[in-house]
Specification:
This is Murein DD-endopeptidase MepM/ murein hydrolase activator NlpD. The protein is 0% helix and 43% strand. The chain has 134 residues and is mainly β.
Protein backbone atom coordinates (compact mmCIF):
# COMPACT_ATOMS: atom_id res chain seq x y z
CA UNK A 1 0.00 0.00 0.00
CA UNK A 2 1.10 3.57 -0.43
CA UNK A 3 1.15 6.34 2.16
CA UNK A 4 2.05 5.79 5.80
CA UNK A 5 2.91 2.20 6.74
CA UNK A 6 -0.27 0.21 7.33
CA UNK A 7 -1.04 -1.02 10.82
CA UNK A 8 -1.33 -4.78 11.32
CA UNK A 9 -4.74 -5.11 12.97
CA UNK A 10 -5.12 -8.89 12.72
CA UNK A 11 -2.36 -11.43 12.18
CA UNK A 12 -2.31 -14.71 10.29
CA UNK A 13 -4.03 -17.36 12.43
CA UNK A 14 -4.47 -20.57 10.43
CA UNK A 15 -6.77 -23.29 11.73
CA UNK A 16 -5.28 -26.56 13.02
CA UNK A 17 -7.11 -28.41 10.22
CA UNK A 18 -7.70 -27.06 6.69
CA UNK A 19 -11.49 -27.34 6.93
CA UNK A 20 -11.83 -25.44 10.23
CA UNK A 21 -12.38 -21.67 10.51
CA UNK A 22 -9.35 -19.45 10.91
CA UNK A 23 -7.77 -16.28 9.60
CA UNK A 24 -5.83 -17.17 6.46
CA UNK A 25 -4.12 -13.84 5.90
CA UNK A 26 -3.38 -10.56 7.66
CA UNK A 27 -5.53 -7.46 7.94
CA UNK A 28 -3.76 -4.16 7.38
CA UNK A 29 -5.54 -1.02 8.58
CA UNK A 30 -5.33 2.08 6.38
CA UNK A 31 -7.45 4.91 5.02
CA UNK A 32 -10.08 4.19 2.38
CA UNK A 33 -8.72 5.05 -1.05
CA UNK A 34 -5.13 4.08 -0.18
CA UNK A 35 -3.38 2.65 -3.24
CA UNK A 36 -2.98 -1.14 -2.95
CA UNK A 37 0.22 -2.36 -4.60
CA UNK A 38 1.46 -5.79 -5.65
CA UNK A 39 3.82 -7.43 -3.17
CA UNK A 40 5.97 -8.78 -5.98
CA UNK A 41 6.34 -9.48 -9.68
CA UNK A 42 3.84 -11.76 -11.35
CA UNK A 43 0.66 -11.86 -13.42
CA UNK A 44 -2.85 -10.84 -12.39
CA UNK A 45 -4.77 -14.09 -12.16
CA UNK A 46 -8.11 -12.57 -11.08
CA UNK A 47 -9.44 -9.03 -10.87
CA UNK A 48 -13.13 -8.65 -10.12
CA UNK A 49 -15.96 -9.07 -7.66
CA UNK A 50 -16.42 -11.95 -5.22
CA UNK A 51 -19.50 -11.82 -2.99
CA UNK A 52 -19.85 -8.09 -3.70
CA UNK A 53 -16.22 -7.19 -2.84
CA UNK A 54 -13.39 -6.31 -5.18
CA UNK A 55 -10.60 -8.89 -5.17
CA UNK A 56 -7.26 -9.06 -6.97
CA UNK A 57 -5.10 -12.21 -7.08
CA UNK A 58 -1.55 -12.16 -8.39
CA UNK A 59 0.34 -15.30 -9.39
CA UNK A 60 4.06 -15.03 -8.60
CA UNK A 61 7.03 -17.21 -9.64
CA UNK A 62 7.62 -20.29 -7.52
CA UNK A 63 3.94 -21.15 -7.19
CA UNK A 64 3.02 -18.29 -4.82
CA UNK A 65 -0.25 -16.39 -5.07
CA UNK A 66 -1.20 -13.20 -3.22
CA UNK A 67 -4.74 -11.89 -2.79
CA UNK A 68 -5.94 -8.41 -1.90
CA UNK A 69 -9.47 -7.47 -0.75
CA UNK A 70 -11.64 -5.39 -0.54
CA UNK A 71 -10.34 -3.15 -3.29
CA UNK A 72 -11.74 -0.93 -6.02
CA UNK A 73 -10.08 -2.94 -8.77
CA UNK A 74 -7.85 -0.90 -11.07
CA UNK A 75 -6.14 -3.62 -13.09
CA UNK A 76 -7.14 -6.34 -15.55
CA UNK A 77 -6.75 -10.10 -15.52
CA UNK A 78 -3.64 -11.26 -17.38
CA UNK A 79 -1.71 -8.04 -16.83
CA UNK A 80 1.94 -8.47 -15.77
CA UNK A 81 2.95 -6.62 -12.59
CA UNK A 82 6.15 -5.80 -10.75
CA UNK A 83 6.60 -5.21 -7.03
CA UNK A 84 4.76 -1.99 -6.27
CA UNK A 85 2.42 -1.97 -9.28
CA UNK A 86 -0.91 -0.39 -8.26
CA UNK A 87 -3.71 -2.97 -8.23
CA UNK A 88 -6.51 -0.66 -7.11
CA UNK A 89 -7.53 1.35 -4.08
CA UNK A 90 -8.58 0.17 -0.64
CA UNK A 91 -12.33 -0.06 -0.14
CA UNK A 92 -14.26 -0.15 3.12
CA UNK A 93 -16.32 -3.12 4.15
CA UNK A 94 -13.95 -5.75 5.54
CA UNK A 95 -15.90 -7.47 8.36
CA UNK A 96 -14.45 -7.00 11.84
CA UNK A 97 -12.07 -4.22 10.78
CA UNK A 98 -11.38 -1.84 13.67
CA UNK A 99 -9.82 0.81 11.38
CA UNK A 100 -11.38 3.11 8.78
CA UNK A 101 -10.63 0.34 6.25
CA UNK A 102 -8.67 -2.92 6.26
CA UNK A 103 -6.90 -4.76 3.48
CA UNK A 104 -7.11 -8.53 3.86
CA UNK A 105 -3.83 -9.73 2.33
CA UNK A 106 -3.43 -13.44 1.72
CA UNK A 107 -0.61 -15.69 0.52
CA UNK A 108 -0.82 -19.26 -0.79
CA UNK A 109 1.45 -21.86 -2.30
CA UNK A 110 -0.86 -24.32 -4.00
CA UNK A 111 -3.60 -25.13 -1.46
CA UNK A 112 -1.44 -24.16 1.55
CA UNK A 113 -2.06 -20.77 3.14
CA UNK A 114 1.06 -18.98 4.37
CA UNK A 115 1.68 -15.91 6.51
CA UNK A 116 2.04 -13.03 4.02
CA UNK A 117 4.22 -11.14 6.50
CA UNK A 118 6.94 -13.72 5.75
CA UNK A 119 7.36 -11.98 2.37
CA UNK A 120 8.36 -8.86 4.31
CA UNK A 121 10.46 -10.72 6.89
CA UNK A 122 7.86 -9.91 9.57
CA UNK A 123 6.15 -13.29 10.01
CA UNK A 124 6.18 -15.21 13.23
CA UNK A 125 8.78 -17.94 13.51
CA UNK A 126 7.43 -21.31 14.55
CA UNK A 127 9.78 -23.81 16.12
CA UNK A 128 9.25 -27.48 15.43
CA UNK A 129 10.10 -30.24 17.91
CA UNK A 130 13.58 -31.54 17.46
CA UNK A 131 13.73 -34.92 15.77
CA UNK A 132 15.78 -37.60 17.54
CA UNK A 133 18.95 -38.66 15.74
CA UNK A 134 18.55 -42.05 14.01
Amino acid sequence: MSGPPPQIVRRFDPPPQRWLPGHRGVDLGASPGTIVRSAGAGTVLFAGQVAGQGVVSVEHPGGLRTTYQPVHVGIARGQPVTAGTPLGTLATGHPGCPAAACLHWGLRRGAEYLDPLLVLGLGRARLLPRQPNP
